[in-house]
Structure formats: structure tokens, C-alpha cells
Amino acid sequence: MSKALVVIKSMGIGDLVILSANIHAISKYIKKPVTVLAQKNTHARSIFKHDPHVGEVIELDKKGFFNIIKKIKPKSFDQAYIYSDSIRLYLIAKLSNIKNIYHYNFFSKEGKNFFKTAKEFSENLLNTKIDSQPKIFLTSDDKSKALKKFNISNKTKNIICGISASGPTKRWEVKKYINLFESINKKFPCKFFLAGGAEDEILINQILNSTIGKNCISFSKMTIEETLPIIGVCDVCISNDTGFAHVASALGLKCLILFMDSPPLAYGTYSKNISIIVPNGESIESCGHNTRGKNNISFNNVLDKALKLLN
Q: Measured between alpha carbons, how far is 204 from 64 in angstroms, rounded to an integer?
């Protein structure tokens, strides 16, 4: 019987979520759950906690070459799918006595589209078309608890707000988000869930201490696992290009994502749930790393698209 290991090199939760459609495709192909090897920062254990296509998650220690082999080898995998061009990950699989190892061509990933490279890799191996829309699985009990605990109902618009990002050049100004929330709240009674971690508390506190703060709930002291059911029962997501936006997309929310210093072709076009905003003067094709366009994101454009999404 096939026993498959899927190896994810990417560090971010957003990357893991985008690649999850490929993980599901492999599981369906071999007709059983797979084991995922991924870095701790991806929060793979939380993302795949209720996923019927993932039987186990093993933590990928960046420095522990032989420790990883010790974890993998006794499990007797007969195939590995490596979503990377890393020679190190190939050697880990090889020294773990995995017979069939599928991986990107070495030194081939530079400059390539992130999700399309993974999709083409999977489709060629599995000889089938893959829907790139990811899905995170939740239990109805977890969702019911979130609705009750945070008093989430259709009396308000419940909005996930990804105000942070992996760097300052990828973050729209917090003052603009405050103005946006106030403008939206004039049209609809709203509850805003501020998606960010402990390292984002300075940004989050700016909003909590503003005039719209009474309508806001912070995720900063919650685990990813705690936030997932909350996101899953909200209405829409308005966000910078950050992991929480990709999680929201995979939980079925319509998402408005602001791309100002990252490529929407790679991180926005994979999902039917994502609407894209780029800086004035840029297009989906031209916007990318080093665009540095956060000051050229039109407030009126964001507000207009947000209101349309909420309608």
C-alpha cells in the first residue's frame, strides 16, 4: 500500500495554505491520508487538525538534518513529494530509504510563479487537473462555540482584518485602516477581528485605542488554532497580503487583498475567493517584490471594493 510523505519547504502559513490543494490531490490519488513534513512556522498541525487528507504532521527542523531522518525513516514511506528544488530535502528523503522521490528540478525555482509551479508539478505527476482553491476543514462544534463566544450574528458585518504582514513595505498604513473601518461602519454595523500575532500588538493597539476600537477584537493573544473557527464564521476578509488572508480564503470567505510589495499573480490568482487591489499605476502583472507601492494604494478604491464585497 502507498505511504506518502509530502515535504513543504516554505516557512509561512500562507504558503502552506496555498499548497494544501496539492496535498489533497496527492491524498485522493493514493486513496489515503498523507504525512506532511513542514516547518513549525507554517502551523501545519493546526491547519490540518481536522483534514481527512492528512494523517500526521512532522516538524521540519531546519538545522537537524539527521534528526529529521530519524523521524522519517522508521515510518517506511515508499514515496515522497517535495515541493522544493532543495538538494538537502532530497537527500533527507533518499537517506530515509524512500524509493520514489518526486521533486522540483534542482536550482529551478528562482523567479517562478509560486502556486503555478506547484500546480504544474502535481498535475504532471498525478496526470490530472487540480483545482488550486484550498480548503481548511473545521468541525461544526468549533464553529458553534466561536459564534457563541464572540456573539457573532447576522446583525453585524463580521470582518477579518489582516492589518499586519511580513514586513513594513507590505503593510497599508494603520491610520488608513482605521479610516476604512470607520467608513464601513457608517454603512453597516460592524465587528472587526484584528488578525495578527503578539508581535503585531503595537499596530493592533493603535486601532483598539481609536474611535473604532470598541468594535474590534484582537487575535494577538490567541493561537492559530483558536482563530480558525472565528475566521470560518465571519463574512469577509480585508487584508494586506498576509497569512491570515490566505487562511480566510481557504475557509470560504470572500477576501479583498491589498498587494503593494508582493506578486498577486503568485499569491492572489490561485483562489476564486480573492479580489485583488494593486497600487495606482500598477497591474496584477507588474506588481511584485520591490514595487514598494503602499503609499499608492487608493483609499477610495479599497472602500468601494470593500462595500461591494459586503453587499
A: 35
CA atoms within 13 A on the CB side of 150: 27
CA-based nearest residue to 150, from 135, 138, 160: 160
Would you state the pLDDT for residue 170?
95
CA nearest to 26, candidates 38, 36, 12, 15? 36
pLDDT tops 80 at residue 206: yes
Per-residue model confidence (pLDDT) at position 27: 98
Phi, psi for 17 (deg, rounded to 5): -60, -45
Residue with cell 504532471: 124
Q: What is the pTM of this model?
A: 0.95
Instruction: Please report, for residues 82, 117, 126, 151, the alpha-carbon distance to residue 120 in angstroms, rounded to integers and kept in the order given.
Output: 13, 5, 10, 43
Q: What is the pLDDT of residues 174-205, one digit of tens each?
A: 999 999 999 999 999 999 999 998 899 999 99
pLDDT band at 10 (very low <50, low <70, confident <90, very high): confident
Buried b (16+ CB within 10 A) or exposed e, 111-147: eeebbebbbebbeeebeeebebebebbbeeebbeebb
Q: Spell out the domains of the chain, with CATH numbers in brackets.
A: 4-126 (3.40.50.2000), 142-310 (3.40.50.2000)
- Please state, in angstroms and as integers, the Cα–Cα distance from residue 134 to each residue in 9, 58, 130, 137, 272, following that order: 18, 21, 10, 10, 10
Q: Per residue, what are the HEC states of 245-268?
A: HHHHHHCCCEEEEECCCCCHHHHC
Between CA 182 and CA 174 the distance in angstroms is 12
Q: Where are the alpha helices (DSSP H) in 73-150?
A: 87-95, 114-126, 140-149
